[in-house]
Structures are given as structure tokens and as C-alpha cells.
Write a structure and sequence with these properties.
49% helix; 5 strands; 268 residues; single chain
Length: 268
């Protein structure tokens, strides 16, 4: 291996978050995300936030905290499953092109185009030549997005085998969470060794300066959510002027004429 450690050797309990400190930091990060989003809306910025990881690794919980409090009309969450019959007849990246964000918008992908080198590889949905070629195709796809001004955040959420088992058992025992568990989960768990190999190779082949991977250990859910939000804040806010613009004079004048309203002097 090069840059990346073997996933199952990651310390999944490093830096556990205390609940009170977690809530305070979560609120701060969510407020900062809104500032960044509003700046992107004003400037026409675009972002792609891509989440991969094991079943029960915490992708849904992270996405929930990520979008909380944001302007809802400018953020889109795409839950990616198996391709439709129409999509199967096209290039594997075609369906993702259809979901890319317009200026001022963000797109969050709950599973991604990396299915080509993960589930499609492991389950034999495409031949070896196709998924091997997928590394180059994905790299070109992400370079095109970056060259066009799209900011890309890629997060791989890793959960230990023991913690994954605990969470899935908990889901099965709670009626409102049972919908999250299916036979596919157990097929994937049985192939953990193969998936570990695929994840490790994916990290080595597709980490780049314009679309870097960040691996987040998620056995501690609270710490993982903070790490995920910080990663998004850092990537989307880098070099961005998030100061709110002054009130447009013509808007202030329209309010004065209609209501006699005058803006209060701004504090220094």
C-alpha cells in the first residue's frame, strides 16, 4: 500500500466526542455550512459531495446533519441504487451526469459512480476489463468536473465488523429501522474481505489533488459526523468570501417608497 492504511487497521475509536461538546461543535459547523452555501448561491458555485462506505457505516446520519438548516431548494440528495433497465443500456457514468448540480447548487450522492469498482466488481455485474477501465473513466469524469469549477468532496465511511454487526442487529430489533436491512446487506457482509481489497485499491487508484479521498472511521458516530462536516466545510469554504453582501440600494429604496422603511446603521 502507498498513502492509505489497510481499512481494518484503522483505529475506529480514536478521539471519541462528548455529547455536550458534540452538540456545540455540530451547531457551529452547520452554521458555517449555511454561510458557505449562501456564498455559493450568490456566486453560482457548484459542489459534489460523494459518500461511500459500508452498510450501517453512518452515511444517512451524516447526510441528515449535513443538510440540516441549509437552503433546501439549492441542495439535492441522490440515493444511488442499482441502475434501471434504461440506464443499463448506457455508459455507467451517464446516470450521474444527469444529477450534477446547476450553478448555485450542491449535489450529495449517497453512494456513487464508484459502484463500478466496488459492487459491480465484487458481484460480477461487469467483467474485469470494464471495472479496471473504470478507474481511468472515473478519474477523467472528476477532472472534467473540477476543470469546470465544481468542488468535489469524497468521503469513505469505514465501520469495524463488530460495530457493523451491532448496528444491523439494532436495526432489525427496532420496527422503524427494519426497512434499512435487506438480504443484500448480508451478502455484502459475507464478502467483507473482497470489499476491503476493492476499497483499498479504489483509494490508491482514484485519490487525486482535485478530487481527494478522506477516510472517516465511524465506530463513534458523533466524532464521525463532526469529521465529515469539517471535511465538507474545509473543502467548500476554502478561499471563498462568505461575508454577506450589503443591501442593494434599489431594494432599500423600494422599501422606503412603499413602507417608509429605512435600514438601521450597520455596526462596525
Amino acid at each position: 500500500m502507498g498513502k492509505w492504511p489497510k481499512l481494518d487497521r484503522i483505529d475506529n475509536r480514536d478521539g471519541a466526542a462528548e455529547p455536550a461538546a458534540y452538540e456545540k461543535e455540530l451547531a457551529r459547523l452547520q452554521d458555517r455550512l449555511l454561510e458557505i452555501q449562501l456564498a455559493h448561491i450568490r456566486t453560482g458555485g457548484r459542489a459534489v459531495i460523494a459518500l461511500e462506505g459500508w452498510d450501517a457505516a453512518g452515511k444517512g446520519g451524516l447526510i441528515q446533519r449535513l443538510v440540516y438548516g441549509l437552503e433546501p431548494r439549492s441542495i439535492f440528495v441522490w440515493r444511488i441504487g442499482a441502475p434501471s433497465s434504461d440506464e443499463k443500456g448506457r455508459h455507467h457514468l451517464w446516470r450521474f451526469w444527469q444529477k450534477l448540480p446547476a450553478p448555485g447548487n450542491w449535489a450529495v450522492f449517497d453512494r456513487t459512480w464508484y459502484g463500478r469498482v466496488l459492487v459491480e466488481r465484487i458481484e460480477g455485474y461487469c467483467d474485469k476489463a470494464a471495472w479496471k477501465r473504470g478507474y481511468r473513466e472515473i478519474g477523467e469524469f472528476e477532472r472534467q468536473l473540477a476543470d469546470d469549477g465544481v468542488r468535489i468532496v469524497k468521503l469513505l465511511l469505514h465501520v469495524s465488523a463488530d460495530e457493523q454487526k451491532r448496528r444491523i442487529v439494532e436495526r432489525m430489533t427496532k420496527p422503524r429501522k427494519r426497512y434499512k436491512v435487506g438480504l443484500d446487506d448480508f451478502r455484502n457482509i459475507e464478502k467483507r474481505k473482497a470489499y476491503l481489497e476493492a476499497y483499498d485499491e479504489m483509494l490508491e487508484e482514484t485519490h487525486s489533488a482535485t478530487a481527494p479521498w478522506q477516510v472517516i472511521a465511524t465506530d463513534d458516530k458523533l466524532q464521525a459526523r463532526l469529521l465529515g462536516l469539517r471535511a465538507v466545510v474545509d473543502a467548500l469554504g476554502k478561499g471563498l468570501d462568505t461575508a454577506p453582501p450589503p443591501l442593494a440600494p434599489e431594494v432599500a429604496e423600494a422599501a422606503r417608497k412603499l413602507w417608509g422603511w429605512k435600514p438601521a446603521p450597520e455596526r462596525p
